[in-house]
Write a structure and sequence with these properties.
Elements lengths: L1 H10 L7 H10 L2 H6 L2 H4 L7 H7 L5 H13 L2 E4 L7 H4 L7 E6 L9 E5 L6 H16 L3 E4 L5 H11 L4 E4 L13 H10 L1 E4 L11 H11 L3 E4 L7 H11 L3 E4 L10 H8 L4 E2 L3 H5 L20 H7 L15 E3 L9 E5 H4 L5 H9 L5 E2 H8 L3 H14 L2 E4 L3 E4 L2 E3 L2
Helix pairs in contact: 1-6, 8-9, 9-10, 11-12, 17-18, 17-19
Amino acid sequence: MSNLKHWIWLSLRKGLAGQNAVRVLERFGTPELVHAADEEAYRMVDGLPDAAIRSLMNKSLDLADVVLGDCERYGIQLLTLQDSAYPERLKAIAQPPMVLYWKGRQFAFDNEAAIGMVGARQATPYGVQAAVKLSADLTRKGALVITGMAQGIDASAVRGALKVGGPVVSVLAGGIDRVYPYYHKDLYEDVAAVGALISEYPPGTDHAGSHFPVRNRIISGLSVGVIAVESARSSGTLLTINHALDQNREVFAVPGPIDAPQSEGTNRLIQEGCAKLIMEADDVLCEFVDKFPGKLRLGRGASLPPEAEEQRLEGAAVVPESREPRKTKEKPPQKGGEDVVYIRWADCKDKLTDDQREVLLALDGGVVQADDLVERAQLPARRVLSALTVLQIQGYVAEESGKRFRAAVKLKME
């Protein structure tokens, strides 16, 4: 426990990011010896700034104790740079994190065909569809998808992997206990249940904007290749690609319309020869199949093992309580003159969870079987069933015979 305290203490020193941390650790050998050193010893480290030295002179371990307590409370594990389980891939990058905070499964990344997937937060429908399909196919064929947790391409990649019952890894730009964005709480729980949430930031750390570019080096560092799905010409996505190129990772890009702003970055990566143009998962996995014999499955016949398919079809989760949203009843002209309950989407969407909104929108336009609804909503089966249960209680959804469902209301989108 004392050893972990010193690792946390060292990782939290201000002015000690990047190569400075690496140099200090190389000079003294262990965090305990760094902690025990004096100012004169610190000044012998080449290039160490005064701010870092002042921070190192603060020997208090109180904050480390708080962090350890938070980790125990939230079920978060720690992995240090000198642990045998620390991925060699990540250790080899220019600025490896000294401490990784971990919730969920612990993967042997060096033995995984890990593929990073990044892209725009303000993704287009085309980008969302491409990310979901690629992630699902990569997972089905034996790869491990690594992404973030932001809206847009990150969340779509997560949902694609979860949809086929496979694991997925999300690298966060804040503490694992801080859900960001807040409406991705269900995604956090699902990823922790079947995959892993990873961060170099201790519990309680907000997801600050400055953390995201720093976080990106971990996504590429854990991966053997990185896919850019959508990107503007100047974006965080291209920063991740730059990390991947610096780390000698394979880079791939999904092409987009030549006049689409959100495809300009990816199209230029392809044009300039920095990325391989891909249209399906096999375009990526063919580059790694020889390196991971027996793990990757190419071709249309590839599928998940039976146990993974079974996991995908688990029953509904516990249903959360929800308040009845305000409804308005109107009588616009309808075929047959029947009364129809109309609900203004603007009034109800913020009172529903992310999953409930997706399911309700997917039901618009007719009777849908549960299996088809999973496909339409791009969500795991158990979460679709959970959302349906809540929506039925609220009066939004009605169940027909044969496990078929229909919307019991009409949505006014204007």
